Amino acid sequence: MCGIVGFIGQRQAAPVLMEGLEKLSYRGYDSAGIAVLDERGKLLIRKEEGRIENLRSVLVKKPANGCAGIGHTRWATHGKPSRLNAHPHTDEKGRIAVVHNGIIENHEDIRRKLGVSCISQTDTEVIAHLLGALYDGDMQHTLLRAMKELKGSYALAVLCETEPEKLFCARQQSPLVMGFSADSGEGHIASDIPALIRHTRDVLILHDGEAGVVTREGMRVVNADGAACHHPLFHVGWDEASAEKGGFAHFMLKEIHEQPQALRDTFACRKGDWLPISKQEAQDMQMVTLAACGTAYHAALYGAYVLEKLARIRARAEIASEYRYRDVPVSENEWFVAVSQSGETADTLAALQKAKAMGMRTLAVCNVVGSGMARETQALCTHAGPEMAVASTKAYLTQVQMFLMMAITLGGMRGVISPAEAEERWRQMSLLPELATRTLQTHAQIERFVSRLQGCEHVFFIGRGLDYALAMEGALKLKEVSYVFSEAYAAGEMKHGPIALLEKGRLVAACITQEKLADKMISNLQEARARGAQVLAVCTEGLAERVRPHADECVVIPDADEYTAPMLAAIPLQLFAYSMAVARGCDVDKPRNLAKSVTVEEW
Ligand code: AGP
How many Cβ atoms sit within 10 Å of the Cβ of residue 338? Predict the structure, then answer.
């Protein structure tokens, strides 16, 4: 999740690129860079670590003059945030500059095949070398040939010394738009509409597998076979502020909708020895402690379940702020995993440091490359992209996915699941982006239900097994954004106390994705309704017929296996929290009393 801009026209490119990068800084902001072609047709590259202001200071000291250029704001995925890893990257001769969003899965293979040595740790630099190696005097054609070799998701913008009158771009599973203004003779490229909305409101949306060229005269797009494409222009009706949110009313909603892509990108990390644990270590592993706060703790709860179930390892999830002060005996061959979106949460970082001091082997699952936890230990990075809303959504789902990936891989290494079963689990996971897209369609139904929920101030989330971990996340999401009192219970616990609270005016939100526990859950729904409570059920298609008669509202998600269905069911719960917050007029993206990253112990 980075940001791309490109400009060609009659005026200086650098100020236009910088303005575009500012507009895209919500997509990533750990480093930034531009490449400009000067009047002699030479590439000038300027880049800097940190926020865009840092690049601005570099440009004051070392201007880059020229009327065509490309720019990038980065959210690190391969290689830490640094000036060296910042885009643009160039080919060996330094004549082709590339900026890139996405992930190139086979970058190592291409690097080896080309026999080049890279100076950065990025997958992007390999694209520049590949273009350099394939270049045949026509960059648009070269791009099409390169795309046949690249595996993964990408949006690219390319500048080339030998074709100084053109900007090039290409897209595969990562958004990219082009714009042209005949009045000013200016062409633009951007990964997101906000970067060019000031210059034109009529944009051309590139499709997967296509390559485009923008000049001072117009723009042209070809498909993978080189045939011209004539896409109608899309007229942008949004204002600049909502454009930053991609047309969504809030970042939270935008991030909920980004989950199919986040799942796809995180899944793409699974290749070769993606898990930094050797077969021997996996076989010796006796125990795993997962420590985290808030939403990340709920992902850890899911993690503990699947590590036990699929990898047959004893596992427990711990609240980091408790764990750091406990006197826990550590067993031999016990591993510790810190889980955190930001990688900076003080309690989780302290728990990680304590685990290291106790001699445990450690890992972190986080969403920010180069964060405190990633510096402290080896990190498995989720590829959710920057999360702006305080309420975590896409980071949570990719953490859960990361644990499932870990459990399948460890289960295979420990010989407790067969290759055929592992294959089936991976296949099910590969279906997630598509199923998540379908699940997003439940939004309208949830909004209608919320509009009927007048004066509901108490919500009980219930579930069993993996659905209990999910219910905890549903309750947290609702309380933090809508300020409605909500608690989660293991459904079997209701009769041991909480059921005393059920009466008319209460809502029970039940998560039902586990076939073997469905009958028990249906009994819980009957008990709740018998006491006057309303029931909102979230269940799979296969269970809908049995669940529907016992619910006031039944939100149906697509069928999926027992591990991935709870991931899909998280989406309606997020949408429920979001819709409740909107209906109650809450500040959705910045809930009261909360901060995105809690980097001090008490505040
Ligand atoms: C999530 O919606 C919350 N805002 C909060 O619970 C968060 O998950 C928690 O503070 C942990 O943050 P981290 O993942 O960055 O460590």
Answer: 34
CB atoms within 10 A of CB 323: 24
The per-residue pLDDT for range 2-16, each reduced to its tens digit, is 889 999 999 999 999
Distance of CA 41 to the CA centre of its chain: 38
Distance 461 CA to ligand 1 centre (A): 19
Distance, in Å, from the CA atom of 590 to the CA atom of 21, rounded to the nearest integer, reads 23
Alpha carbons 365 and 399: distance in angstroms, whole number: 7
User: Which of 319, 341, 397 maximizes ligand 1 atoms within 8 Å of its Cβ, making it the mutation to test the pocket?
Assistant: 341
CA-to-CA distance for 284 and 210, rounded, in angstroms?
48
Q: Whose CA is nearest to atom 2 of ligand 1?
A: 391
Phi, psi of 307 (to 5 degrees): -65, -40
What global pTM score does this model have? 0.80
Q: Which residues 6+ apart lie within 8 Å of 245 measured at CB?
A: 251, 253, 254
> Given ligand 1 and candidates 598, 602, 603, which is best to mutate, with the most ligand atoms within 8 Å of its CB?
598
Residue 441 CB neighbour total at 10 angstroms: 11
Q: Report the candidate in 272, 261, 27, 268 with the shortest Cα–Cα distance to residue 152.
A: 268
Residue numbers of the chain with a pLDDT score lower than 50: none
Active site residue 596: yes
Bridge partners of 396, per DSSP, are none
Q: pLDDT tens-digit profile of 450-466?
A: 999 988 899 999 999 99
CA 233 to chain centroid, in Å, comes to: 28
Closest ligand 1 atom to the C-alpha of 348? 16
Q: Where are the alpha helices (DSSP H) in 245-293?
A: 251-257, 259-267, 279-284
